[in-house]
Design a protein that fits this description.
It is a single chain. The protein is α+β, with helices and mostly antiparallel strands and 685 residues long. It folds into 2 domains: 39-224, Glycoside hydrolase, family 65, N-terminal domain (Beta-galactosidase, Chain A, domain 5, Distorted Sandwich), CATH 2.70.98.40; 251-683, Alpha/alpha barrel (Glycosyltransferase). 26% of the residues lie in helices and 24% in strands. Strands 7-8-9-10-17-14-13-12 form an 8-stranded antiparallel β-sheet, with no helix packed on it. A 5-stranded antiparallel β-sheet has the order 3-6-11-16-15, with no helix packed on it. Strands 1-2-4-5 form a 4-stranded antiparallel β-sheet. A hairpin with a 4-residue loop joins strand 15 (195-197) and strand 16 (202-209). Helix 4 (314-324) runs antiparallel to helix 5 (354-372). The radius of gyration is 27 Å and the shape is elongated. The two termini are 44 Å apart. The relative contact order is 0.10.
Length: 685
């Protein structure tokens, strides 16, 4: 077999650098401010980052943002000259947090406080402050709110480069700030303050409270751009909240009450992460995650749209459409590729190209969206884009049929070959269904890739063998095993509730399932991205030992489809336990430390939360548990529940199959039953 060209960054087999070298003159990334214990209120493009006590002090990332600009950095409440004693802060919804505190009044003779302060803050900066008296005498209290902002960009705040606070001016019933570039922010109040001190950004009220009564002060934050600049003019303005996108109000219930809360929060977070395409406002997609990755549509948005197909196909359509507009055309080897930035792939491999991942994901998501009931007119519009992605795949593959990533010099990643194989198999199915030529050729291409993959990527050893992470020039393998291997089990959905063939044969699939179920990979909270016994394991390594929710969800679905329910159930239960520890708002990743009695999973300091793939992954987990496999074009839907019923009875309702509500139940015996479906949809085998 001919050797592949050696990339400049290639390492000998199994060897890893002690540290990742930076290019000359490169600047070390700034330390991200900690937000893992903050309450994040999200309704993009609006965002509020709140500490648990509720006071905004301007420290770190705290504040109210609109379209990436901090409109309000400081909002400190004082009652009777002192800050209330914070008792509780909690997430009330994806876009709202509530805080409870108390104040001791002059008439309180015992340890019991006579005044409670309830604050409700929304992502768009609207805040309601309610003072409630439980004192036995009437109260007359001075209330002060100290406000301030720097109108800094989110990136500058995260990098520690925020400007000093701006000087405020009295404006209407509140305050106003203006930056050098003409951008403005203002806070208005209801009722109006009795006094305002612009130099200190201070608003004052004299509040009278009878025993048992309450008074509410409402703050509203707004941002404005100077005349002539386009874009949103305030929190939720301009492009506005997407709204109206078909994300179904799915519900879950069962013997384990946590499934209902997990799905409720996931659906809430997915709606909060929706963003509108500014140039094409009819199209929306999911932000990859808050607060670090709210940029243009990415590969994560595609994977999330795929896993969220049970909530309706509209999100997949608009995400695919937004991705299609970026596809490269014209002559040359890049024609048909969807561009994307490089992303760090951990300490053992060079950065990977997210554009390669997105290009290979496009035909997969389109084909599966068709199975869930995508409208024919949308399919006709997007099919040529998928064909161009397949054209690029054929051109990009080397003479051995493998797809290099990020460039022609490699390396050749096992995960990338899994994406390519899935695109070929589902692409062939899509071409046949739409009466387009080439289906048989792609199936033959996929068959040849399976043979070559097993010959070059499967490493036989005395323990039964394992897949290689990647190969270098000459076929030298990187042998480290981790959660990435779950993608080898993700084959994709065909007609009649069937799964497409995978890259591995039956014995290799069985061996991989056994490996994924060992404590070296199953941490008890989910699947480690690198095995605990592998050299270089780091529980906080985003590709070197941390638990990545996307990989864990893919593993549960793949193991369940292949019949390895014990291993799938263990990962499923671990993820559900982790979700409970995180208040059911799963971060994209968390520490892969071994689970011990009484412990909770540790957050990763750089993780997004909420994250699109984690929220959509919760939907995919429950759909896998119930075993819903639709074939809307064929007029059938099959149920293949996890027979061991690891969570007992589970009922999934108000999801969408063929555009209509669908509900199904799985009993404690693992028997599935359809309770509601579209007219004419038959139960398949």
């Amino acid at each position: 077999m001919a050797s592949r060209p050696a990339p400049a960054h290639a390492l000998p087999a199994g060897q890893a650098p002690a540290t990742r070298l930076r290019a000359p003159g490169a600047v070390r990334p700034a330390e991200l401010p900690s937000v893992h214990d903050a309450l994040l209120c999200v309704a993009l493009p609006a965002l509020a980052v709140c500490p648990g006590h509720g006071q905004l002090t301007g420290q770190g990332l705290e504040g109210v943002y609109a379209s990436g600009r901090r409109l309000l950095a400081r909002c400190v409440l004082r009652v009777a000259g002192r800050e209330p004693l914070a008792l509780q802060g909690r997430q009330d919804a994806a876009d709202r947090a509530v805080f409870l505190s108390v104040v001791r009044t002059a008439g309180d003779t015992g340890p019991d406080p006579g005044l409670t302060v309830e604050r409700s803050r929304s992502a768009d900066g609207t805040e309601r402050i309610t003072l409630r008296s439980f004192a036995v005498r009437p109260l007359r209290l001075p209330v002060e709110i100290s406000l301030g902002t720097d109108l800094a960009d989110l990136g500058a705040v995260a990098a520690g480069r925020a400007s000093p606070e701006l000087v405020a001016s009295v404006h209407g019933t509140g305050m106003r700030w203006t930056a050098d570039d003409g951008r403005c922010a203002s806070v208005t109040t209801d009722p109006p303050p009795t006094d305002a001190l612009a130099a200190a950004g201070l608003l004052r009220w004299e509040v009278e409270l009878a025993p048992g009564s309450a008074r509410t002060i409402e703050l509203r934050v707004r941002g404005d751009r100077p005349h002539g600049l386009s874009g949103p003019s305030g929190a939720g303005a301009g492009t506005g909240r997407p709204g109206g996108v078909g994300i179904a109000e799915a519900r879950a219930e069962g013997d384990d009450p946590r499934v209902g809360e997990l799905l409720r929060v996931a659906v809430d977070d997915l709606r909060a992460l929706l963003q509108r395409d500014q140039e094409h406002p009819a199209d929306v997609h999911l932000a990859a995650g808050v607060p670090w990755r709210c940029g243009p549509v990415t590969a994560e948005a595609l994977w999330a749209a795929r896993m969220a197909l049970p909530l309706g196909t509209r999100l997949a359509v608009t995400t695919l459409r937004a991705m299609a507009r970026t596809q490269l055309d014209g002559p040359g080897p890049a024609s048909g590729r969807i561009p994307g930035p490089l992303r760090d792939a951990g300490p053992f491999l060079p950065p990977r190209c997210t554009g390669v991942e997105a290009t290979l994901a496009f035909p997969t998501v389109l084909a599966e969206a068709r199975r869930w009931g995508m409208p024919e007119q949308d399919l006709a519009e997007l099919l040529p884009v998928a064909e161009r992605c397949l054209h690029w795949l054929r051109a990009a593959a080397d003479p051995h049929g493998f797809v290099p990533d990020p460039g022609p010099a490699g390396p050749w990643r096992a995960e990338t070959q899994a994406h390519a194989h899935r695109a070929a198999v589902l692409g062939a199915d899509l071409l046949d269904a739409c009466g387009r030529p080439g289906g048989d050729a792609w199936r033959e291409w996929a068959r040849a890739l399976r043979e070559r993959f097993r010959a070059e990527f499967w490493i036989d050893d005395r323990s039964g063998g394992r897949p290689a992470l990647a190969t270098a020039p000459g076929g030298r393998p990187w042998t480290r095993l981790g959660g990435w291997a779950a993608h080898l089990l993700d084959t994709g959905l065909l007609g009649g509730g069937r799964y497409a063939p995978g890259l591995l044969d039956k014995s290799e699939t069985e061996q991989l399932a056994r490996l994924l179920g060992t404590p070296a990979l199953d941490s008890g909270w989910g699947l480690r991205s690198l095995g605990a016994k592998e050299p270089g394991n780091n529980p906080f390594g985003h590709r070197a030992g941390a638990v990545r929710v996307h990989e864990t969800v893919v593993a549960v679905a793949g193991l369940g489809a292949a019949g390895y329910e014990k291993e799938a159930a263990s990962l499923l239960k671990g993820t559900l336990d982790a979700a409970e520890a995180f208040g059911y708002r799963l971060p994209e990743m968390y520490a892969g430390s071994l689970r011990t009695a009484g412990a909770v999973p540790a957050p990763h300091p750089a993780a997004c939360r909420p994250a699109a793939v984690a929220a959509a992954g919760a939907v995919h987990l429950l759909t896998t548990l119930v075993g819903v496999r639709p074939d809307a074009p064929g007029g059938t839907v099959a149920l293949h529940p996890v027979r061991s019923a690891p969570l007992g009875t589970v009922r999934l309702s108000e999801i969408r199959v063929a555009g209509e509500p669908f509900s199904a139940r799985v009993s404690r015996l693992g028997l599935g039953m359809v309770e509601e479906a579209a007219d004419g949809l038959q139960l398949g085998v």
